[in-house]
Amino acid sequence: MESFNLAASAIPNGVTINTLAVDDDRSMRMMLQTQLEDLGHNVTTADDGKTAWSALQEHGADIDIVVIDREMPGMNGLEVVSLMKNDPLLKNIPVIMQTGSDRAEQIREGIDAGVYYYLTKPIDEEVLASVISAAVRNISQQKLLNQELKHHKSSFNLIRKCQFKLRTIPEAEDLACFLANCYPQPEKVVTGIAELLINGVEHGNLGIGYDEKTWLIKSGTWRDEVLRRTEFPEHKNKSVEVLYQRQEDGFYLKIKDCGNGFDWRKYIKVDPSRALENHGRGIAQAHSMSFDKISYNDAGNEVTAFVANDSDIDW
């Protein structure tokens, strides 16, 4: 078996990741801190759920990722997550939960609470790096997209309908920033839009499957390989078609690729069996965090994402 490429977990240039590590076991807490710092994180620690919640309340705007033990005396990990998910300022922080059990029902309970990343004890260094890298990609993409949002905002609320075609990952990211500004809460939808557009490029048009993407991410070559394949002769004329419409009841985004589709039902929610893997959460997170509804055609090569209109929104 190939060894994990720690470079694949590296934090992108210009991005700082502040991580809160929470564990009542001092040895485990110190080990986590060391490993996270080795991966380039700025680490703050807490020795129980109550202390973690106090840190989140005081410094939540500066915390990017929370790594937390499920079972702790007093306030346990799930209770902290529940409080986070009910707080508008904290609910989108990625949570990585440590657990002594890999039972599907326990992992499902955490996923239902909003935990998309898992580590099982004893924590394997390779698995830690893999799961951390998945969370880092998530928050790094969100940070970079949010930075881009600041350069795009103008009279986007005047747009009622527009169409686009794109071929590459950079085009997908740029368009995600543009389209997000058409919504009342750009920061809420930008990552979800990017995930759906990127899926149309990598899987739909280029045919990169789940297992192959797992290997590409593990080897640190995913983005370069997607860019390389985009220029293959057989893919030169393939594009992802995008239609945005603002209607009376809300905001519609339709995305169609040139692929044969996929079994989207496997990905609309996070499967506990994939909770330790290095990707496979994007569609589920878009469904639960960015949009009110996501619907695919039967084949899976066309998706419509909907956000309901809110008359109380302050533009």
UniProtKB/TrEMBL annotation:
The keyword Phosphoprotein applies. Keywords: Phosphoprotein. Coiled coil: none annotated. It comes from the Bacteria. The keyword Signal does not apply. Gene3D superfamilies: 3.40.50.2300, Histidine kinase-like ATPase, C-terminal domain (3.30.565.10). GO terms for biological process: phosphorelay signal transduction system. SMART domains: REC. Residues 18-136 form the Response regulatory domain. InterPro entries: Bact_response_regulator (IPR050595), CheY-like_superfamily (IPR011006), HATPase_C_sf (IPR036890), Sig_transdc_resp-reg_receiver (IPR001789). The modification 4-aspartylphosphate is found at residue 69. This is Response regulatory domain-containing protein.
